[in-house]
Amino acid sequence: HVSDWCYQSQFTCDHQCNVPDKWNHANGDCAGSYQSPINIVTRKTLKDDRLIPFQFDNYQEIFRGTIKNNGHSVQVGVPHLSIISGGGLPNSYKAVQFHLHWGNNGGPGSEHTIDGEQYPMELHIVHMKHHYTDLTTALADPEGVAVLGFFYEISNSANKKYDPIINALRSIKTKNANISMSPISLTQLIPNEQNLTSFYRYKGSLTTPGCTESVIWTLFESPIPLSKDQLRVFSELKFHDGKAMVGTFRPVQPLNGRQVYRSGGAAILASATFLVAAVATALGLSQPN
Ligand SMILES: [Zn+2]
């Protein structure tokens, strides 16, 4: 079927499907010039003072969401009550759903990469402009959708705040399976607000077909900790054909001249060395005599 698309990990001789390089067969927009994800080269980012901290309204609201294996990922619908503003966004945006992208048993799996580093998993909280009521309408507006992206890092201890999600995964291993989760809030899934002032910003697209280019992307620098055991549970999920749902990320796409901006707090990795040298000079450490 022409609208069928799959990740590279799903392609076999027995099951030939439209892998990311062929997603334009599923939807022509996937061959566009402003596609996501991208690799963020931190030394090429431009500091933008308009990228002030976000305001998160009702992010602490507790809700009982339904988590679903949609055949490509796990997705949770969010009541349209949580609203983001500030952060250099042109409008306020309300949360619609969140989903994740991951690798194989805790291996590389994020969609965006930072200076070439691929993290084990990436969370996308999808928002639409406040006055819209459905995502399809919002996607017709070039600034209709704002996605907040968060990276994960492997921690030694389990992140208990993720128990409702991790526990539910065991019940939705097959495609279209869904279950009501224990109550959660968006706040409990992301780093503390004081660690969310450092982020990157660029204009891009959905990372799955239709690949619509109407997304304002924000990638936060501060990662979410999750233990290796917790990450491994995601690899127990199955694609429609019963194969392990792993490698659910699109490869990075060309920038095609786009500028990536960073908020005041975001670090440029290349300048860290310079900073150390500057501090050492200031302290007189570089000239021991
Ligand atoms: Zn996504």
UniProtKB/TrEMBL annotation:
Enzyme Commission number(s) of this protein: 4.2.1.1
UniProt keyword terms in alphabetical order: Cell membrane, Disulfide bond, Glycoprotein, GPI-anchor, Lipoprotein, Lyase, Membrane, Metal-binding, Signal, Transmembrane, Transmembrane helix, Zinc
Matching CDD domains: alpha_CA_IV_XV_like
Record field: catalytic activity: hydrogencarbonate + H(+) = CO2 + H2O
GO CC annotation terms, alphabetical: plasma membrane; side of membrane
Main subcellular localisation: membrane
Residue ranges of domain Alpha-carbonic anhydrase in the record: 3-264
GO function terms (MF aspect): carbonate dehydratase activity; zinc ion binding
Compartments it resides in: Cell membrane
Superkingdom assignment: Eukaryota
CC cofactor: Zn(2+)
Chain ranges passing through the membrane: 264-285
Topological relation to the membrane, as annotated: Lipid-anchor; GPI-anchor
Quaternary organization: Interacts with SLC4A4.
Function: Reversible hydration of carbon dioxide. Catalyzes the reversible hydration of carbon dioxide into bicarbonate and protons and thus is essential to maintaining intracellular and extracellular pH. May stimulate the sodium/bicarbonate transporter activity of SLC4A4 that acts in pH homeostasis. It is essential for acid overload removal from the retina and retina epithelium, and acid release in the choriocapillaris in the choroid.
Family as reported in the entry's similarity comment: Belongs to the alpha-carbonic anhydrase family.
Protein name: Carbonic anhydrase
